[in-house]
Amino acid sequence: MPSPWFTHELKVRYQETDQMGVVYHANYLNWFEIGRTELIRELGMPYRSIEAKGLLLPVIEADIRFVKPARYDDTVTIRTRVEQYTNIRLSFSCEICRDGETLASGGTRHVWVNRDWKPARIDKEAPELYELLKKWSG
Amino acid sequence: MPSPWFTHELKVRYQETDQMGVVYHANYLNWFEIGRTELIRELGMPYRSIEAKGLLLPVIEADIRFVKPARYDDTVTIRTRVEQYTNIRLSFSCEICRDGETLASGGTRHVWVNRDWKPARIDKEAPELYELLKKWSG
Amino acid sequence: MPSPWFTHELKVRYQETDQMGVVYHANYLNWFEIGRTELIRELGMPYRSIEAKGLLLPVIEADIRFVKPARYDDTVTIRTRVEQYTNIRLSFSCEICRDGETLASGGTRHVWVNRDWKPARIDKEAPELYELLKKWSG
Amino acid sequence: MPSPWFTHELKVRYQETDQMGVVYHANYLNWFEIGRTELIRELGMPYRSIEAKGLLLPVIEADIRFVKPARYDDTVTIRTRVEQYTNIRLSFSCEICRDGETLASGGTRHVWVNRDWKPARIDKEAPELYELLKKWSG
Predict the structure, then answer these.
(1) 3-state helix, strand, coil in chain B (%, to 5)
(2) Residues B94, D68 contacting (CB under 8 angstroms)
(3) What subunits touch chain D, counting only 3 or more CB pairs under 8 A?
(4) Which of A95, A111, A120, C106 could, after both became Cys, cross-link A79 (CB 3.0–4.6 A)?
(5) pTM value?
(6) What is the spatial distance between Cα A11 and Cα A76, in angstroms, rounded to a whole number?
(7) ipTM of predicted assembly, 2 dp
(8) What is the distance between the alpha carbons of residues A131 and A40, in angstroms, rounded to a whole number?
(9) Is there a contact between D98 and D77 (Cβ–Cβ < 8 Å)?
């Protein structure tokens, strides 16, 4: 059952544009990541401290649909929610909006691994994080 | 009917890594784009000259599966093929490989637009490009 | 006579790190640019609207000294001031700080050009902008 | 005494452009780094293997002058040479050229550090690398 949406705003950087005069498409994946970083911070455990515990959360799948281009200096809203989680996996949905209009939407799927990139069970290796995810996803 | 695979090699840049010690995931979309740029060059009409005609080819959808991480200074092979094309749309499949092993795979879907971002029919606006695509895709 | 310092905060993005575990050095130039963008906004004329008038402000020189590395998720403060300005040129000084400590410092020098990259005199082509610069640098 | 120039070519990526229609200025620092990476490879010891020994070569200073903009799909030549070296420091000069014309030039200064970012003496910690530098710089 998906969690509530969490929103975070950012301003489009000049460096993120390309010669089409719009945001280069790969940057939306970067924004998706910023969205889930901020959601995880809101959860109560910054991703930085999760990595400090030796847990990494690489992306194993991503998909994205581009509807309208974002432009330099636009204020865009990143809406993110936890779509599904287990003790080894986690997935997010994400929308990029401007003035209430969706510019892009998609999702990312992740697996928890340890520093050696072996799958990790977070209910065992970070039970407090697992509880926070449960609580967040209601 | 998909076209043959076209391959292009590149060396992973330091700037493309992140603190996990691997390539930051969004960069694979950049490599996908380099793959299709080089395929289009091979077709006989560099993308640069297509844009000079006033045609743009923005991405409208992308998906990607990450299998194994690429690392700094790896030589990776980008394999790209035209998956489908019409007079208004174009789609590519793409694989990122290292030593014969697939690191990531996915696809992008595009629509031809003119400088005002209105849909463009390339059989009318760039018939020679349309012929090249036909010939390439056999 | 240099203007007062203008400060702007940002959070270090994951994508900005490299495999040394710190921010990749070229990104500081991007932050310098964000700093002067926000200073120009504060001046009363967003850079976006300056470009809309047909004026561009490319960098012609940049220098930077790196003292301590910024890291993922750090909150860094960008301090920027106008160092010098004439009707055709503009220069900024910039410092990147964290918790009151300077991580990097440097400067950029710019020239005003029009859309054809020919030098532009802003006292003639954008007198209201020139007045704002005068007032700011007071 | 500076070393001979070492040259390396690359093709400008779409992602490296910005809405001015030229290469975003911070990317030149990335190209400088690619230039010295390839020079160090030519020396006989890839930077990757230097890092594997536990030595890092962060940038402590950089300066750059921008003369003419590089554009999408340009083939640019990176010319790099060792400007100075000691057992703890190293500096490079770099030029970015297109068709024999200089687009940008500058330099970077570096210090050898170990994994804890403490200064390292490479004549002691990597004497074979120190010999290679001596030989290269004639």
Answers:
(1) 30, 40, 30
(2) no
(3) A, B, C
(4) A95
(5) 0.96
(6) 6
(7) 0.95
(8) 13
(9) yes
